[in-house]
Task: inverse folding
């Protein structure tokens, strides 16, 4: 796997040499909000499916100039898989430019079937890297993203029964730099999912005043 960049206005495809290395697997890219950094995950290449359980991805970044379409001359490894012995994928930069939200598991890239998968936070200002707090559970947390104001995140989780994936929302506390306890995305049928009226009301207030501001 390689990482390329498609330019909608010119219909050109950019193939930076540093994200197209023969003996590496590059995957799951995401641009920073200002478009000046490309984040992605990298692992040593292997034969699949034979080597799937040894595939552990590092979290990396590459500078980019959105005006010229030119990339930087080196890749920065933010979190090394060889040091952590874990896999770091599905990076999502916060839209305020302060944090990365990353899925971490024992191996691999498609982590929706990994019960050990959790979300971790990378602080772009300090370089700190740590579990994301109340947004995590004892089961799978995988695909996720920030709200536009970087105060909330949504994550797909199997915390209810370990089988079905449901969407949970969590508030990010800027003082603790952690997510508060997550709650289930309000459902049409409250009796099935047992969401109380005050939870729904709180959700509506917060989304109105903060997410949609």
Result:
């Amino acid at each position: 796997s390689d990482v390329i960049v498609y330019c909608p206005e010119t219909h050109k495809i950019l193939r930076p040499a540093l994200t197209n290395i023969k003996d590496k697997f590059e995957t799951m890219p995401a641009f920073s909000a200002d478009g000046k950094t490309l984040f992605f995950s990298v692992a040593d290449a292997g034969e699949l499916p034979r080597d799937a359980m040894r595939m552990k991805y590092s979290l990396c970044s590459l500078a980019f100039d959105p005006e010229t379409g030119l990339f930087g001359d080196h890749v920065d490894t933010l979190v090394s898989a060889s040091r952590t012995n874990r896999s770091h994928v599905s990076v999502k930069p916060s839209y305020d430019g302060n944090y990365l939200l990353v899925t971490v598991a024992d191996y691999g890239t498609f982590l929706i079937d990994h019960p050990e998968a959790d979300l971790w936070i990378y602080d772009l200002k300090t370089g700190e890297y740590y579990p994301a707090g109340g947004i995590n559970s004892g089961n799978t947390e995988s695909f996720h993203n920030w709200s536009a104001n970087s105060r909330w995140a949504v994550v797909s989780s199997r915390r209810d029964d370990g089988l079905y994936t449901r969407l949970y929302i969590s508030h990010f506390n800027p003082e603790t730099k952690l997510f508060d306890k997550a709650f289930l995305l309000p459902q049409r049928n409250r009796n099935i999912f047992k969401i109380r009226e005050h939870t729904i009301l709180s959700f509506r207030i917060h989304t109105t005043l903060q997410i949609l501001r």
